[in-house]
Amino acid sequence: MINLRRYTLIRNVILLWMSVVLCAAFLLGIPKINILEHTARNLYFHVPMWFTMMAAVFVSAYHSFQVLRSGDIVRDIRALQAARIGAFFGVLGLLTGIVWSKFTWYVGTDVWWNFDPRQSMVSLQLLIYGAYFVLRGALDDPSKRARIAAVYNLFAATTTPFLLYVIPRQMDSLHPGAEGNPAFSEITHPIMRLVFYPAIIGFIGMFWILYTQRVRMALIKHRVTHDPEL
Amino acid sequence: MTWIRGSWAILQKDLRLEMRSRYAVNMLLMFVLSSLLLIAFAVGQESVGERMQSALLWIVILFSASIGLGRSFVAEEERGTVLLLQLNVPGSQVFTGKLIFNFLLLLAVDLVALVVFALLLNMVIEDWLLLLFSLVLGSVGLAGATTLLAAIIARASNKGPLLPVLLFPLLVPLLLSVVRASRAALDGGLGLSRALPDLQIIGLFSGVVITAAVVLFEYVWYD
User: Fold this and answer.
1) What DSSP letter does each residue of chain B carry, written as one string?
2) What average pLDDT score do residues A125-129 get?
3) Which value does ipTM take for this structure?
4) Which residues of A touch B173 (CB under 8 A)?
5) Measured between beta carbons, which residues in chain B are less than 8 angstroms from residue A75?
6) In Å, how far is B19's CA from the nearest CA of chain A?
């Protein structure tokens, strides 16, 4: 069993940490950057959302792997909840990215969607998770659903790394570090990194809170519906 | 040797069944022909560039694969022969036999699609070898992914149009590379050296997909 007091303590620390990060993100001064101006503050939200999604994708794939190894239904619940929260953060990151590019590089044009490699990759990851959820809906028996959904999740995880190589060869990037763009360290002032790195930890902590809460809820639901003694 | 014999037996069984009914082949060919005609009518007299030609060609192949190859394991469930196969042949041999069968079907699709497409859209093929190579290599990866997903949807209770939904997001890396490689074959100025990285990616993708599919198939095939 989990230690509830320790859990509450860690959760409160993360919430406090996140509140401080949010205040610092809006209140601390930032250096003036061409085109971006104050939208550069989006760095504190947009980028950590990506990292959180990546972490969620790894957690989900790891638990899918464990489903195949042990056949444990709890692992399936974990994989599903990580995928759901990963998709949630992916949508958030996608939206913040679209809005950000629209009102900086594409201001005055009608361009909303651009074929940026990272944008394309995350939209594909969202499609894969959409297919994963649809597949789960088509399977009735819980243990069969756990196994087959895990197979699909892992199969998707073996094909997506190719995108990292294929897509950048086909499209130009808006992101720093890509070909012709300045590296991340060149355009960020030390004071921005002072908020940026804690924001990553805060967002991953938020993922952890959401994830553990949802897993506990799903476990209780599973027990209520499947335990014959209840 | 027994491994090859088992796969060969599965392949032979599927080929013989196909010879009797010709269901999959006929359906695939009709689908390819009708979608190509639709494209030709929709495009009309306008000349289509190389990029569009290879993109349309591959989209037709991809859709035909997702519609025609989904039956390979569903048919076993419907005939009630799953248990028989599970008892007699190890899973990896079933998978290999089905994979080769699907690959042969895809080659037929490629051939018909290419010939009809070239006639309808006045395709000028500069580099035959490269085009054939990219079609065959692309079909290997396509067959690998489709065979595993066909086994997955055979276990689902609602089999309908699930395969395209599952298949398309996974095939984007393959699609992007094969479209580029076929475009290089249609566009004479580019040549083999430009398409080599794409061919490497297609080969690598096919290898990884088939390896992962063979490993994962055991979990789908057995209860």
Assistant:
1) -HHHHHHHHHHHHHHHHHHHH-HHHHHHHHHHHHHHHHHHHHHTT----HHHHHHHHHHHHHHHHHHHTTHHHHHHHHHT-HHHHHHHS-HHHHHHHHHHHHHHHHHHHHHHHHHHHHHHTT---S-HHHHHHHHHHHHHHHHHHHHHHHHHHHHSS--TTHHHHHHHHHHHHHHHHHHHHHHHHHSTTTHHHHHHHHHHHHHHHHHHHHHHHHHHHHHHH--
2) 94
3) 0.91
4) 159-160, 162-163, 166-167
5) none
6) 32
